[in-house]
Amino acid sequence: MTVRWGIIGAGDIVRRRVAPAINEMPNCELTAIARANADKAEEFAREFGAKRWYADWRELLGDDEIDAIYIATPVYLHAPQTIAAAEAGKHVLCEKPMAMNAAECDAMIAACEANGVKLGIAYYRRFYPVLAHVRELLASGEIGRPVVAQINSFEYVDIATDDPRHWFLEKAKNGGGPMMDFGCHRLEVLTNLFGEVSCVSSLTANVEWKDREVEDTAVATIEFNDGPVATVTVTHGAFEPQDTLDIFCTAGSIHIPVLNRGDVRIVSKGGERSEMHPNGANTDEPLIADFTEAILNDREPTVGGDTGRNIARLIDNIYRA
To answer: How many structural domains is the chain composed of?
Structure first.
């Protein structure tokens, strides 16, 4: 059986990773694309071999030759589009963050359950080989019990008001700044490694852009029920990019200088060593493959709606705190 995909939204991530991943899977077919600009929708469809294109995403949901939808639109559209897709009988793989808040996530999950379709969320870092190795290290006891975890995620982002991507800086469309946008990925990493959260405190600020609707910098401190105290620091304002993960344990430590790259330094009582656990060429491929297999084998996706809702609830608490 082949899973026939439709994509709603065709931005940079879809062009570079999602559409190529679908096309590279032997059990997938890219059937249609929806984009508000009809000319660009046609151009994208022809470039990636989709049979059809639509300027209205609602028309795509009415296409009987589509089994699954990838939603890659601004965050405020995730809930209504997911619910409409579920009601049309389509499985949904939705971009992160799942929705504007946890209440919207609940509605999305309920719609998918009521209509018997799968719901996945695009937290593709779950499939990083280096993070699988970190889980193995922590479980082995070699470096003891985790005490402190630290993440820095810095991307300089200054988007002009007339840029089509300016919605990233609009609260009504994105829900928040860097904590909402890419901080959510790092929160998913931590909750997957350490489990349930017991306490959250935070600080959000506009350090560089005082008149922004959303924060340009944020720090969250998270205490886990059975794990470390973790800090996540995100910013749009720093010149030097950062994508770090450091875990300090009772008998050693783990240091990942660039999470997307996969190199790791491990310190233990036995000494220090460096290892490489690189990603594949397309980091979205394992995500697409897992969701496709979930459909074909009638199982839950590895990163499902519950994960998305948990991260949304954590973000709600971070902004509330």
So the answer is: 2
Host domain of residue 134: 129-278
Residue 310 falls within a domain, yes or no? Answer: no
Phi, psi of 257 (to 5 degrees): -75, -30
Rounded to two decimals, the pTM is 0.97
Is 96 marked active-site? Answer: yes
Q: What angle do the packed helices 305-320 and 102-114 form, to 10 degrees?
A: 160
- Domain assignment present for residue 103? The answer is yes
Is the Cβ–Cβ distance between 90 and 278 less than 8 Å?
A: no
Neighbours of 161 (CB within 10 A): 7
Backbone angles phi, psi at 204, to 5 degrees: -120, 145
pLDDT tens, 236-267? 999 999 999 999 999 999 999 999 999 999 99
| Six token digits for residue 161 | 């008001």
One domain for residues 103 and 137:
no
Element of type H or E holding 136: helix 129-140
* Strand partners for 267: 253, 272
Query: What is the tens place of the pLDDT at every residue in 193-203?
Result: 999 999 999 99
At 23, which CATH number?
3.40.50.720
CATH number of the domain at 238, please: 3.30.360.10
List, for residues 129-178, the tens digit of each pLDDT value: 999 999 999 999 999 999 999 999 999 999 999 999 999 999 999 999 99
Residue 258 DSSP label:
B
Which pair of structure tokens corresponds to residue 232?
């996540």
Kindly name the residue from 96, 171, 173, 210 that is annotated as catalytic.
96
145 and 74 both lie in a single domain: no
Question: In which residue are the tokens 């931590």 written?
Answer: 190
10 Å CB burial of residue 79 (0-12, 13-18, 19+) is buried
